[in-house]
Amino acid sequence: MKTKRFLVIAIAIVIGASAVALAKDWRSGIAWTEPKAVTPSETLGGAPSDAIVLFDGKNTSEWDNESWKVVDDTMIVGKRDNKTKKKFGSFQLHIEFAVPANDKNGQGAGNSGVYLGSQYEVQILDSYKDPSGSKPKITYFDGQCGSIYKQRPPQVNACRKGGEWQSYDIIFNRPKLQIENGKVVKVIRPAYITVFQNGVLIINHHELEGSTAYEHPPKYEPHEELLPILLQDHGAPIKFKNIWIREIQDDNTKPKQEREPYFN
Ligand code: MG
């Protein structure tokens, strides 16, 4: 009888100890700082409270090319490329654009582009594909709208028709380059890019192979850590509106902190 009672007590102790262990809360050991409060926009696609507004439909003072005029609350491609006066590292960029309705094919069908740091282009083009397939636009896939020019086509074609407004939401993690005597001697960390077009994921954390030149293979070229955003003049009257940007943290740039995960 005593043995039985002892067994019951022992089991109760084990169960109790296990329950206490399970109730303990795992912590990573990192002393995180409190995330700062950001107020989202009341309108879809609008700038949150911590964004830098690059174009609000009126004011082009954030841009360095005065030949890009404002017409009906949109900024239209002028002569030569247009870049921001401010420079950025890693960021989240929202931009809306409309290519003109046209019956052209190839790279002449409403070409422009959003350059990240003047080096890395997300292509803008009229690449609308009729779901029936009756009037597909013709160009090489890694040069169509939403492509990382000459490196990767979009995963899907999420284009709207020429003349209709579209959006890009771009997340860019800048590269970390070791530069000596004006040359890149080591790519410490490549750049990564994610793109949503009209709310559809088209580029998923893609590792950039370097700048997106049209006449030579991609390679990392020396550049400053912070660079402007550049919109391309490729001879077509592309319209832009509602452009804003948020500077973001690179989670993967900091060395692993010394830490000991623990329970408390
Ligand atoms: Mg282009």
What would you say this structure looks like, in words?
This protein is mostly beta strands. It folds into 2 domains: 2-30; 52-247, Jelly Rolls (Sandwich), CATH 2.60.120. It has 1 helix and 16 strands. Strands 2, 3, 4, 6, 9, 12, 13 and 15 form an 8-stranded antiparallel β-sheet that branches. It has a 4-stranded antiparallel β-sheet with strand order 5-14-7-8, with no helix packed on it. A hairpin with a 2-residue loop joins strand 3 (70-71) and strand 4. It binds magnesium ion (MG). Residues 111-113, 121, 123-124, 232, 234 line the site of magnesium ion. Magnesium ion binds at residues 111-113, 121, 123-124, 232, 234.
Keywords:
elongated, 8% helix, 264 residues, 2 domains, binds magnesium ion, four-stranded antiparallel beta sheet, Jelly Rolls, mainly beta, 16 strands
Write the layout of secondary structure elements.
Blueprint: H1 2-23, E1 26-27, E2 52-55, E3 70-71, E4 74-76, E5 82-83, E6 91-98, E7 112-116, E8 120-124, E9 166-173, E10 176-180, E11 183-189, E12 192-197, E13 200-207, E14 229-231, E15 239-247, E16 262-263
Antiparallel strand pairs: 1-16, 2-15, 3-4, 4-15, 5-14, 6-9, 6-15, 7-8, 7-14, 9-12, 10-11, 12-13
Bound molecules: magnesium ion.
